């Protein structure tokens, strides 16, 4: 098979600059809040021991011989190392991860960063895999056993704990449908929509390019962003090649079809500084993320500036969601003093984790996601009015209502009394007030004087009786809060408030 010409690019190194950097900037509030890196799993720290214990099962694809142990793979040479525990070699995840990281190899090699990959399959499967993905043979170690992956406590996939052993293909199909595979459906669906804030994956000269499709997309949809159907097209191309070569790539043990993997980055001393566990199908760690850590200047274990990460996420929507989640959580722990005046304005929803219930039931990862459509929240602090709306092209759908600001709790408790639907300048509103809010407001004013004290005289006046946001951070660029359902959210500043009060004034 004729290999493609792989573009040598160092673009990833430019993207290292801020998403996980130890930035020194802070907001105009004069506050600096730092967020700690995520803890490394204790079991992962024993990876060298596990490799040594399994060395008789681990074979180098380039030499076709068993490895001698972990020291040969991870010498104490003062270099950082990216370690991939890829899934079986006839899997979407291993193909995508391998193809994408090949484009980053020149940048990694230029900075003396090693790459070591493990994959589930035979030596011959490894050779086919490397030939078709352009992944270097000398960097791939294969195994036909799940022992190492089990020791690393990577997910064995759906059905492992069932009393009845299901066929591997049946389990794979269930996981592709999102059963026992967190995040899979969301990732699959997102592949059909694209994103204006992400770079394209079909790029001339890149290892993942599908030239015929790319040229058509460039002409019809434009370039320089992730086009609708672009990721889906790449996955279809990978699936077609995998299925056409299934017998050459697949493991003999069909239970390995659903075994998940993970990824790590080691610093110069060989210590793990980044540890990712694949939650399900298509849950592999993006090579961009791994390259960011591998090329990060300074100590990759050092805390990062939470506020600068939030600001960049609002500006670009291209900061890793793990960092955004950790940054907001750090603000929450800092007990930052949010006042009502800081919330006054119109704010566009950028990021959300959803409610705890949704995360459990709707196949979502806990680190959240960038909100895919335009949703805007307005807080008119002076007139105590809120508007929450969704806007798709000329169509608008929004709710208006009153709120109470409880300063001691930094809580904005609200209800909606009117809903409106419009197209362009034509808007029709409907009253939905159930009459309870006036009673809540009157009781709150009488018993707490609006200061957020918990009133014992009326159940309805207790904070949290209605939907609310507990704000954890606010400045001139962004605000962040935890909602009643337990989820986190972040908005970016848009302009002055726009509620039904402003509509009446105009």
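-> sequence recovered:
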């Amino acid at each position: 098979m004729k290999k493609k010409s792989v573009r040598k690019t160092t673009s990833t190194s430019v993207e290292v600059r801020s998403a996980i950097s130890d930035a020194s900037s802070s907001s105009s509030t004069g506050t600096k809040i730092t967020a700690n890196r995520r803890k490394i799993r204790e079991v992962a720290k024993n990876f060298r021991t596990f490799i040594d214990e399994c060395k008789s099962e681990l074979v180098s694809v380039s030499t076709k011989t068993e490895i001698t142990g972990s020291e040969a793979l991870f010498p104490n040479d003062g270099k950082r190392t990216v370690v991939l525990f890829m899934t079986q070699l006839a899997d979407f995840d291993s193909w995508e991860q391998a193809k994408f990281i090949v484009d980053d190899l020149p940048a990694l090699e230029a900075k003396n960063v090693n790459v070591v990959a493990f994959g589930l399959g035979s030596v011959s499967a490894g050779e086919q895999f490397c030939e078709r993905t352009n992944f270097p043979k000398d960097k791939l170690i294969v195994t036909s056993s799940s022992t190492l992956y089990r020791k690393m406590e990577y997910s064995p996939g759906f059905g492992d704990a069932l009393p009845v052993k299901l066929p591997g293909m049946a389990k794979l199909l269930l996981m592709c449908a999102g059963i026992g595979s967190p995040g899979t459906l969301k990732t699959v669906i997102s592949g059909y929509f694209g994103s204006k804030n992400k770079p394209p994956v079909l790029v001339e000269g890149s290892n993942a390019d599908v030239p015929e499709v790319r040229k058509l997309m460039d002409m019809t949809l434009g370039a320089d962003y992730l086009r609708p159907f672009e990721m889906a097209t790449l996955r279809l191309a990978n699936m077609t090649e995998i299925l056409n070569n299934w017998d050459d790539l697949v493991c003999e043990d069909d239970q390995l079809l659903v075994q998940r993997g993970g990824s790590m980055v080691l610093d110069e001393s060989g210590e793990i500084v980044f540890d990712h566990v694949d939650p399900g199908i298509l849950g592999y760690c993006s090579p961009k993320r791994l390259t960011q850590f591998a090329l990060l200047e300074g100590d990759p274990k050092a805390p990062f500036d939470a506020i600068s990460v939030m600001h960049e996420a609002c500006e670009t929507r291209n900061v890793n969601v793990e960092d955004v989640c950790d940054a907001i959580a750090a603000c929450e722990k800092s007990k930052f003093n949010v006042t009502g005046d800081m919330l006054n304005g119109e704010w566009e929803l950028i990021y959300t984790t959803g409610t705890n219930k949704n995360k459990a039931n709707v196949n979502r990862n806990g680190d959240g996601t960038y909100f895919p459509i335009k949703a805007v929240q307005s807080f008119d602090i002076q007139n105590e009015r809120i508007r929450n709306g969704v806007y798709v092209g000329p169509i608008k759908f929004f709710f208006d209502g009153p709120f109470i600001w409880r300063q001691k709790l930094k809580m904005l408790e609200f209800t909606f009394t009117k809903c409106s639907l419009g197209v362009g300048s034509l808007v029709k509103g409907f009253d939905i007030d159930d009459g309870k809010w006036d009673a809540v407001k009157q009781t709150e004013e009488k018993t707490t004087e609006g200061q957020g004290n918990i009133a014992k005289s009326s159940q309805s006046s207790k904070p949290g009786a209605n939907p609310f946001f507990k704000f954890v951070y606010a400045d001139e660029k962004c605000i962040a809060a935890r909602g009643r359902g337990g989820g986190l959210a972040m908005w970016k500043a848009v302009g002055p408030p726009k509620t039904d009060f402003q509509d009446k004034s105009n």
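The first strand starts at residue 34 and ends at 35.
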